[in-house]
Write a structure and sequence with these properties.
Blueprint lengths: L1 H27 L2 E10 L13 H10 L4 E3 L8 E3 L7 E3 L4 E5 L21 H12 L9 H6 L3 H9 L14 E5 L2 E5 L7 H4 L10 H7 L13 E7 L3 E6 L6 E2 L9 H7 L3 E2 L2 E8 L3 H9 L5 E4 L8 E2 L2 E2 L1 H5 L3 E15 L11 H13 L2 H8 L4 E3 L23 H10 L20 E6 L3 H16 L3 E6 L2 H9 L5 E7 L6 H5 L17 H11 L5 H17 L2 E13 L3 E2 L14 E2 L1 H11 L2
Parallel strand pairs: 1-12, 18-19
Antiparallel strand pairs: 2-3, 4-5, 5-7, 6-7, 8-9, 9-12, 10-11, 13-21, 14-15, 16-20, 16-21, 17-21, 22-23
Helix pairs in contact: 11-13, 17-18
Length: about 600
Amino acid sequence: MRGTARFACRFVVLLLAFALGVHAAAARSADMHKVLRIASPDITSLDPQQGTDLYSTRVASAIFEALYEFEYLSNGSKVVPDTAEALPVITDDGRTWTIRVKKGIYFTDDRAFKGKPRELVAADYAYSIKRVLDPNLRSGGDVALTDLFVGARPIVDAARKPGGRFDYDAPIAGLATPDRYTLVIRLTHADYTLLERLAGLNFMAVAREVVEAAGADVMRHPVGTGPYRLVEWRPASRVVLEANPKYRKVTFPENADAPQQKLVRAMRGKTLPQVGRIEISIIEESQPMILAFGQGDLDYISLGGDDMKRVMDNGKLKPELARAGVRHLRFGSPTLTFTYFNMDDPIVGGYSKPQIALRRAIGMGFDVDELIRVLFAGNALPANQLLPPGVSGHDPSLPPRSLYDPVAARALLDRFGFKDRDGDGYRETPDGKPLTVVRGTLPESWYRESDLLWKKNMDAIGIRMKVQQQTFAELINMSLAGKLPMFNLGYRSLEPSGYQILQTLWGKETRDTNPSQFRNADYDAAYEQFLRTPAGPERVRLARKMSDISQAYMPMILHTYGIGNVLEHPWVGGYWPSPFGFAWKYLDVDTGMRDRMLREARK
């Protein structure tokens, strides 16, 4: 008996050694001497279900994982499995989706797991999706998904009542886990955006015990299964990630159809992640970021607008950058910038003909072409519809052009009674009251130049405009409270259909998603039909219809589509500006080349 016990103990020890060896091998795939150094504006949240900005999304997407992801070496429109074994099995005319989660994926260690390994299971995705529905979280819930998942509406409605809380233990028929690794999603109707939603940040898996233990600190306490884990976050200073020692074996993707075959050959067979540590310096202004890159303190930087004037001469990289082997990547970015109007505001809001005319005149009075020329240094295109190029709902038959027509703007204002009655050069309202339009702005140099352009353009059509200068956080809080009449924003489509941009004018959404609080039955019907329509001509037609409705009522002035620019040092490998995927886990750094080149440069 004692011999059997000794054998059993040795067997257990061997099993533990094997398990530790697997984890150690995963950790060794990332070289801890390889440090990727990048810059970013400050982040606000590392909770997948409570993230609100692009920069937080980038960091969180390196820590957490979804069932699916967007293929890296393509235009990003293809969804491929990540933690799922395969694409969903879809039955019942698109209303039932069955997904199998891969076995043997583990969360990084956390005190909430009480010293035990914690495997990722289907229930983690069911719980995370319930958090997306929870109206009491920062995002305010998701109205579309509440009505999409069978049985979700009563639970969400109960949570919305005064003092109500979301019951995470209440069964939802649309989110079933018949066994440890199977998730069955049942829908009230087909929704062709669901697959890309399943690849998005909101649907990334969190562990319930970590969320409950972290409490109010959950946005600063990320614990995921992704390639990296958070080791330091100093607001306004830096964020540091290190390779997850429990990350499973993943190799750089092979894609014979990708145009980046040189990159594929250079990275072929490499285990991900290669980089052991990512150091993110919080830099809000472009000038110090460009300076740090030029000194070799940052490995790559993303630039836009007039920032390119600081690194280019006559369309070419400045000689000192070219001599250093810096590479310049220029590409279309699925982004939209705009100014929205608060439709509840007594001056710029409302649906009467004079109120619509005022907003349209403001839109026609603003010179987007000059904005692009002066403030973007030509690195943008005038927006002509809600969805930018690169998403499946964009209509390429419409030529890019702005609304700018100050003569027509003045005539429109005259027609609807906005006239200068006292001769001071500024118009009054149709009932003779003073007319002042207030726009939110930031205390930064770029916005100061933008403010000057706005004032010049509005003076030219006789509208007095004042600015309300606050920090970005303060302006967002004012927007959420409905106290901001006008504000410039930008959205980056995080998925190939562009539904999230269209969602920003859906009347059923909260002010967090629909800051203008635009409400229009025809728009809402077209948006809901868009979700039920596969990619193709009919989806483009619906997107065009929503765009036409928005431009008729003008809840927002469309400004620009983005052109992205990345500068990278020659020691960076694996980088590709994937429009919808995130790149950090695919990157490599040749530290020997970096050290050698920087020594030579400093002699």
